[in-house]
Amino acid sequence: MKLNPTLIKVLTLLAIVGLLMLALARVGGLVDERQQRASEARRSIEQAQAGPQALLGPVLRAVCHETWETVERKGNTMVTSTLRREFFTDATPDRLDIVGNVVMEARYRGLFKVNTYVTDTTLSAQWKPLQPEAENPKGRVTCGSPTLAVALSDSRGLREAHVQIDGQEVAVLPGTPFKKLPSGFHAVVPRTVADTITAKVKLQIVGTGDLAIAPVGDNNQVALTANWGHPSFGGRFLPVQRDVEEGKFTAHWRISALASSADRDFFAGRALCTGVSAADKDNNRYSSNDDTVVTAAATASDGPSAPGCIETFGVDFIDPVNAYSLSDRALKYGLLFIALSFVAVGMVEVLRRLRVHPVQYLLVGCALSVFFLLLLSLSEHLAFGISYAVAATACVSLLAFYATHVLGGWRAGLLFGTGIAGLYGALYLLLQMEQTAMVLGSVLLFLVLAAVMVLTRRVDWYGLIRSTTPAA
Hints:
Helix content is 36%, strand content 32%. By secondary structure, it is α+β, with helices and mostly antiparallel strands. The chain has two domains: 5-38 and 323-467, no CATH class; 49-317. The strands form three sheets. Strands 1, 2, 5, 6, 9, 10, 12, 14 and 19 form a nine-stranded mixed β-sheet that branches. The chain has an eight-stranded mixed β-sheet with strand order 8-7-11-4-3-13-16-15, with helices on one face. It has a two-stranded antiparallel sheet with strand order 17-18. The longest helix is centred in the first third of the chain and has 44 residues, at 5-48. It is elongated and about 125 Å long.
């Protein structure tokens, strides 16, 4: 008994589709490998320059002493003793205004581009006179000159720092007096905590990826501008005003201590952590100064912030045209491309009574698969849109030329090439319109199915099978 040739051909085509799926999987492996290398390039830049930055301050710390006298009897004599204890008084600003201007700077490791930034930031803070309380009812508290401190998650990114106290420039020294916030700088304030203190701090900070700010003041006003048109605002607070335009953005935050736990986190001795978005980063984590690693899932907990971290907000300078993520998304439609192309060739076979060999199907599928490899390789050197256009044009031209001979005429070849070009155009739209990708994909599939059903509504499938069955 001989097998039906139509069944054999269908089984052969299924095997070809399986082989092409393996080829697409290999291309997907290349995309993953290149993404990993891009992540390694980013980590290399972070290690050589500075990583994501988190900023806290300015805050005050003063060393205070409490003295009191006690009277006790020793035998028949009353002895007066003076006791003394030393303690720290920490203070966050009553008002904190931050103005930052961010300028993006691209760094490269081979072919891989890493977005870094330089921000010129001005911090203006004001403290009311402090009155540290004595523990002993008869105690007297005296405090020395306080220390003003500003903490950073990565002090290697600090290029410049200037501190003015009531208009007077003071010397800036490395490090902070806080155990959990070792990175940063400090300056000795020529005042006492009993005086009103006004400070202005000017910084130039270098970072990679994102910038986070801890709103430790009672009233916080933050304004950021940047020459970057694709910000991703995150953390615990979104800006109350934002203006995102082509190539730039401005954002403003107004945060009260009534809404934020940052000052309480600071007094509790928590760490300053980087990361403003739970969906961020290749490693999907927050990193802190004391080597604590807090997973992004922790932000979904019942607490006000990630465990062990001071509450922050900020902006991630994301790259929306990531060639590897777009190539990976395009690959997800690879099997659909192959299936629709095979359906188109099969329709021509049925409607025009042509015979297309399985090897010819295989070559068409290989051309479709090579498109994704071309797209990946070209996008490492050219803009993604240009790379897509070049790869699509090359593959459409090849398939149209080949179909001219396979389908028996230049009209059929041109029509086939036009259909493939339409598929590439639809795919590009799917890549650019992520939010409506499912709708567009569903509509496309419906239209293709409707076209097949309309064109084959009069086909006698049983008759077609009988005509290909060899006589006994």
